[in-house]
Write a sequence for this structure.
């Protein structure tokens, strides 16, 4: 019981501290902006640990964070193998192929307004569909190894990136294009010097959406069949053995990988579109 | 309306490509069968055969349409082979989860907008959680709830709710903040309290943002319900249909279930779009 009360006390204390910090005149400081959510995250972990230990929740329902951490540190080689199989081989290769193909397609159909008017509604429609359902078919076609996962990821990321890139290529203003025309710039010069740079904020918007989709695609595709490694495989088999600490460890790795992937793309966006108002405003 | 022709052209191109791919992918099997029987086949016979196989690598569009029609209209609605039955199982979990997730999301967004401490603590996590492949927890949720005796609709609805929760929180928090300082000042001069500001200014102003995120989250909750049916044990629902099709090599069944899911998703998004148009027009916000 003391675990439970301790956790609740910690929660109340942390909440009071956060409320004071948020109301104080330091609220705008960078340290505080970082500290408040961090403390909230720690509080959630402490509350989780306290409730699980205090109420004696069995480990097959919800393991405490400390047990999950022990599993993570104890099973690094397994987790690393799964990470390489799913994220590096499956998700990353599919992401690169899918985004590259979508980008090239967008540039290719850019010269034909007819194709654009036809493809955009279809692309928007497909982007809202549960594409992840295509996973069993692609697993049948490409086998159990990472190639089928990469194929699922290619299909999943293609349409969001395509739609955003096409929208981005249309984002220049008449005046800017006229200026390029007075410079007697060719189509390709206008594309590379004006329209592609102007499209970058949109392209990165699509790329950021695609990061999460890529991980989801790679993990869910493994539920339909995979070699004996991979995060989706590990999650579904360890769930069957009720080894939930291992499942949570995989989820922690997936969450970390997802955030890091997103962070990388966001950092690239910052470097490429430094001129955009949304980036300039941020300090 | 001038975009109807291009859309039809693109769709026709997709169907044509699909037929070509069907012939190409399925011809291997036809040639193998012919070689085993010791007969020569002409190209015309190959084309006819590839489009009518029982278990093709890629079913032709008309086979999928046939399977879909058979599943939707050719069976009794209560039959285990009816896609209406499986679709309803998935749809009910989707809707329950969507309602829970949206309700909680709006409540949390109101809390975030009205409480600065909550804004600073919760908001970064809500945004970060969108970068996490949360769908990976689906099998665990199903099994854990099964181990405490809960099966069927509720665990799937919880996954759906979880997936639809965060888009609504982020979109609603943005929408509730969308009134500018001038409008907030006006309400202050009316001596309006926080409650009045919420009801009369912030909530109406947030509607376009709410509908934009509802469209995202309804699609997400359908995906959540389908993935929630994947772990072994589920016998009904579109996800279970996909899984059993992939176990037994029934490609037509997989494609039919896939198209049923697509129709369901498109229908849900269109219903929300219709409500959005109606609401915004009544509120004078239609553009």
């Amino acid at each position: 019981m003391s675990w439970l009360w301790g956790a609740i006390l910690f929660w109340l204390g942390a909440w009071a501290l956060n409320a004071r910090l948020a109301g104080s005149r330091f609220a705008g400081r960078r340290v505080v902006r970082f500290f408040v959510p961090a403390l909230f995250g720690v509080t959630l972990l402490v509350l989780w640990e306290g409730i699980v230990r205090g109420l004696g929740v069995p480990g097959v329902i919800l393991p405490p964070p400390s047990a999950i951490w022990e599993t993570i540190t104890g099973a690094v080689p397994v987790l690393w193998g799964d990470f390489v199989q799913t994220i590096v081989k499956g998700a990353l290769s599919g992401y690169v192929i899918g985004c590259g193909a979508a980008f090239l397609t967008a540039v290719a159909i850019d010269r034909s307004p007819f194709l654009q008017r036809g493809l955009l509604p279809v692309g928007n429609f497909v982007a809202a569909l549960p594409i992840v359902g295509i996973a069993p078919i692609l697993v049948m076609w490409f086998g159990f190894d990472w190639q089928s996962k990469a194929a699922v990821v290619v299909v999943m990321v293609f349409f969001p990136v395509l739609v955003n890139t096409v929208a981005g290529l249309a984002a220049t203003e008449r005046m800017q294009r006229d200026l390029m025309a007075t410079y007697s710039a060719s189509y390709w010069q206008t594309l590379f010097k004006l329209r592609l740079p102007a499209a970058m904020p949109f392209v990165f918007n699509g790329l950021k959406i695609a990061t999460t989709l890529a991980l989801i695609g790679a993990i869910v595709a493994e539920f339909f069949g995979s070699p004996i490694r991979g995060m989706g495989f590990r999650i579904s088999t360890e769930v069957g053995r009720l080894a939930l600490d291992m499942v949570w460890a995989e989820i922690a790795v997936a969450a970390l990988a997802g955030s890091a992937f997103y962070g990388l793309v966001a950092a690239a966006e910052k470097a490429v579109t430094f001129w955009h108002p949304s980036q300039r405003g941020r300090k | 309306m001038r975009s109807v022709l291009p859309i039809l052209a693109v769709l026709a191109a997709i169907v044509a490509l699909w037929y070509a791919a069907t012939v190409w992918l399925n011809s291997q099997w036809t040639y193998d069968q012919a070689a085993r029987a010791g007969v020569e086949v002409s190209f015309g016979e190959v084309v006819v055969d590839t489009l009518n196989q029982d278990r093709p690598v890629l079913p032709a569009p008309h086979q999928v349409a046939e399977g879909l029609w058979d599943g939707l209209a050719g069976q009794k609605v209560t039959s285990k082979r009816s896609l209406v039955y499986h679709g309803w199982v998935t749809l009910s979990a989707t809707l329950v989860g969507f309602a829970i997730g949206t309700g909680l999301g709006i409540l949390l967004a109101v809390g975030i907008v009205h409480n600065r401490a909550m804004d600073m603590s919760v908001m970064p996590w809500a945004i970060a959680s969108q970068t996490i492949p949360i769908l990976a927890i689906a099998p665990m949720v199903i099994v854990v709830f099964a181990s405490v005796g809960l099966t069927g609709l509720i665990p799937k609805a919880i996954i759906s709710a979880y997936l639809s929760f965060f888009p609504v929180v982020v979109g609603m928090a943005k929408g509730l903040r969308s009134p500018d300082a001038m409008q907030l000042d006006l309400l202050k001069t009316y001596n309006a309290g926080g409650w009045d500001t919420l009801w009369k200014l912030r909530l109406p102003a947030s509607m376009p943002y709410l509908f934009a995120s509802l469209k995202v989250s309804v699609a997400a909750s359908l995906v959540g319900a389908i993935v929630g049916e994947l772990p072994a044990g589920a016998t009904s629902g579109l996800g279970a249909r996909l899984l059993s099709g992939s176990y037994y090599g029934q490609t037509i069944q997989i494609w039919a279930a896939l198209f049923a899911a697509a129709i369901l998703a498109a229908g849900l998004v269109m219903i929300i779009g219709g409500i959005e148009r109606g609401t915004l027009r009544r509120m004078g916000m239609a553009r």
